[in-house]
Amino acid sequence: MPSSLIKDGWFGEDEVMWPGQKMSLKVEEVLYEGRSKFQDVLVFQSATYGRVLVLDGVIQVTEKDEMAYQEMIAHIPLFAHPKPESVLIVGGGDGGVLREVARHGCVRRITMCEIDEHVVEVSKRFLGDVTASSFNDDRLELLFEDAAKFVEGRRSVFDVVIVDSSDPVGPAESLYTSGFYAALRQSLKPGGIICTQGECQWLHLDLIAKVLGDCAMAFPTVDYAFTTIPTYPCGQIGFLICSLSAEPQMLREPKRPVSREMQAALRYYSPDVHRAAFVLPSFAERVVGPLRKNRPRLMPRDRIGYAAVALLSAACTLLLTHRG
Predict the structure, then answer these.
(1) In the sheet that 58-62 helps form, which strands lie side by side, from edge to edge?
(2) Which of 83, 91, 140, 256 is geometrically suited to a Cys-Cys bond with 164, CB 3.0 to 4.6 A?
């Protein structure tokens, strides 16, 4: 086991953004170790989490729990949109987000902009039956370039943009700037939605608040959700979600039903989980809540209709009883 991150048969993370803690996994076999133009790449077979992809010392994907991240970062924005046809994926070289986007039959074009071609090559080789299973989809245009430069000057092209980035250090640093979010806004069609990796509320509330504030200057609707995933810091990761629509509750309710076929294939996402993802613990809500731009209705539109029918029925009953 040649990796310097593996000692006595155990892999331990090496990450500056959560000092004082790290995730460790028991290693059965190192499958690949190398370096791209941008970062160190490691793949190993773990004892309990299947195959694991590590970039610059940080766990990106494990075979056991990857669906908790991939499904949520993809399906929350995709189902929040009534009919997404053009989707941009930023990053996501392991292929997991692409796999989930490809499940949506209404999507006609998928553009994927990944800066590191080597990550895609390694993922195809070692995660081909896990996450990297949809690179042959004929709707896909795969580009290897800096997404921050790619989106500049593009106007009204995408219905949904999903930013599956690593942490704001190294090759992903340019994806955490106000200029990048402003460019993403310009690239959206009317009613468009972006969803980005939103860090950990246990560790990075200050960073989350800053990015929410930056997005609030560019989008009429800004919200925050999260998912649970054992091998990410503190077992949790968040999503920053923005929309050009100013409709209240725009992002929190699925706009389309999940087919039985798709739901049977999914292992984490469901409409109920979609709604619940926006409910934060009190300590996080105190920080995030004032920065949300998504005024909730007193009652959802469908329930207002039901309530009106119920009130009318009760009034008719009272009237008939009085006449009797």
Answers:
(1) 6-7, 10-12, 24-35, 40-46, 51-55, 58-62
(2) 91
In the chain, CATH 2.30.140.10 covers: 6-62
| Rounded distance between C-alpha atoms, residue 212 and residue 221, angstroms | 11
CA nearest to 103, candidates 267, 225, 216: 267
Give the integer Cα–Cα distance in Å for 85 and 145: 23
Model pTM above 0.85: yes
* CATH fold of 6-62: Spermidine Synthase; Chain: A, domain 2 (2.30.140)
pLDDT of residue 293: 86
| Residues 114, 120, 125: CA angle, nearest 5 degrees | 175
| Percent of residues in the chain assigned helix, strand, coil, to nearest 5 | 35, 25, 40
With b for 16 or more beta-carbon neighbours within 10 A and e for fewer, the 19-31 pattern comes to eeebbebebeeee
Residue 174, classed as helix, strand or coil, is helix
Average pLDDT, the chain: 87
Residue 313 CA to residue 318 CA, distance in Å, equals 9
Looking at residue 98, its amino acid is L
The CATH code of domain 66-291 reads 3.40.50.150
pLDDT at 306 over 50: no
18-43: pLDDT as tens digits? 888 999 999 999 999 999 999 999 99
CATH 3.40.50.150 residue ranges of the chain are 66-291
Residue bearing tokens 């969803």: 195
How many other β-carbons are positioned within 10 Å of the β-carbon of residue 178?
A: 14
Crossing angle of helices 205-216 and 178-187, in 10° steps, is 50
* Catalytic residue ranges: 164
